Structure formats: C-alpha cells, structure tokens
What does this fold into?
Amino acid sequence: MNSQLPSLDQIENAAALIYRGMAPTPQYRWPLLDAALGAQVWIKHENHTPIGAFKLRGGLVYFDELAHGGKRPAGVISATRGNHGQSVALAARSHGIPVTIVVPHGNSHEKNAAMKALGAELVEHGDDFQAARLHAQMLADHRRLLMVPSFAPALVRGVATYALELMRAVPDLDTIYVPIGLGSGICGTIAARQALGQHCEIVGVVSAAAPAYARSFAARAVVEAPVAPGLADGLACSVPEPGALDLILEHVSRVVEVHEDEIADAMRLVFSATHNVAEGAGAAGVAAMLHDRGRVVGRRVATVLCGGNVDRAVFARVLAGHD
It folds into this structure.
C-alpha cells in the first residue's frame, strides 16, 4: 500500500505551503510526564496551531490544491465534530470560498462557536458524525456544493508534516501513539516514518466508546460499530475509512482502546504536568501510554496532543474529578 503514501518531497512541499499560514509546532519533554510513566515522553503540541488542532495542516494543503486545480467551487460543505470543520472554514476563507458545516446535535458549543467565528454556516443534523456526514452529502447534491471529505490524499499529506517535524526533532523514538478519528493523522504518521526510513513502532489509539477501528484491526476488515457519547468526540467514528484501514493494517503494530476514566485521567495529567489543555482526543495518546505503562517504562515514546478544543464546562468537570 506504499503507493498510497506521499513521498518525502511531497510532504516537504506541503510543509513549505503550511508554513506560510502557521509556524511549526513544538515537541517537548515534560519532567512530570516522564516521572508518571517512567519513560522519556515527547509531546507534539498540535494544540498550538491557529485552530488549536492538527487538522489545519490538511485543510491548508487541500484548499491550495483545490485553488490550483482550475475548478473553483461556488461553495464547499463538510461534516465534523469540530476540528476538521474549523480547518475547512479557515482554509476556505483564505481563498474566499463560502463554507457550510454540518454537525450532529449536541456537538461542542465552543467548537460550534469557533466555526461560526471563522465564517461557516452551521447546520445541525443527526445524533452522530455518520448522520451528519450523510446529511452533508445530501446538501452538497441539493445545493451543488463541493463535499470536503475528512480523509483524502491532500489531507494526509498536510497532517504528515507534524510527524515529519517530530521525527526529525526526535529521530530515535521507540514508539509513537496516535489517536484515530477517521485516520488522516495516523496515516500521515505512517507516511512520515516511511519517507524518512525510520523504524519506530506506531500504535493506534481509539476510544472504547468508538471502537470501530479497533474491531476492524482485529478482524482485518471494515467493521462498523456504534458510537456512545464520550469525552473524545474527535475519535467518534462508527465506520472506518477503507483506505486508512488498509494502511493501518500494513504499518501499525497495535490498536489500543482507552476508556472514559483513562481519558479523563490523562486530561488531568496533561494539565498538571504541562499546563496545556487537552481535549479528550488530544489526551488519548497519553491515556494509551498509561494503559500500556508496563510496555513504555524505560523507553523513548511520543504522542500527539492533537487538539485542545474542549468546552470549558466539560474541562472543569474533568479537572474536578466529576467525569
């Protein structure tokens, strides 16, 4: 499946484009995290992008490619739980393209507000991401809008740049834990590792409230699974992306499921050890390290804090231990 992966030149070209809109994000070791896990722990701070999440990298590349493709759409539409929608809204706005975003009912109030602030028309539909995505496709057909997917080659090229930064800064990692939503982040990490010729283990992380990728990994085929409400809304995938799953099956060693209490513990640890805010999906990699404590002791490990966009009331409840 390596033919589906971008080359090093393609990832570096994506990075050059992205750096016109944002700076590279830092990767830090935090002594209290090292102490908590008995390991050398590196955190890639994608919560430091202009939307507080890694998704912007893919959006900038996707819309640049669209702008140079000679078929400028009258408008675009996408479905999201929030961070992808912010990416689409910001990147499309930079090209003067109107944006409609479909979210499920009960979505994060603050992510919704951020998308509106970036100029998106917000539509609420359905009880989960899959329902919102189907409705977005219906609206795309009805309104003659371009449907922006959550997984596409341009998106993978863009988000691969965070892994390229991390692996060049810390070239001798043993293991990288990567949260899985629809799969662009972990496929970008695979792409960067293969492009650099490195050999670190890649471990996928899913929420036990959204186990579709874990079940699909075990079955070696796409397995749909229901999504329950939970802290990690960014991982709330019920139907795996076949192309992403193919790459995961070929290049990822394991997929770890983390439970709500583990995610909440990780959100608290990230805050107390680094004073960074991690949304549920953003803390999932640390939750997996805690889950895997016996495997990581004495090793050099990393994860991506892929987003920090958690509603204030939710975060206050987690910090207070009422999760």
In short: The mean pLDDT is 95. Residues 55-147 form a domain with the Rossmann fold fold (CATH 3.40.50.1100). The beta strands are 27-29, 40-45, 76-79, 99-103, 121-124, 146-147, 175-179, 201-207, 254-258, 300-305. Residues 158 and 255 are 23 Å apart (CA to CA).
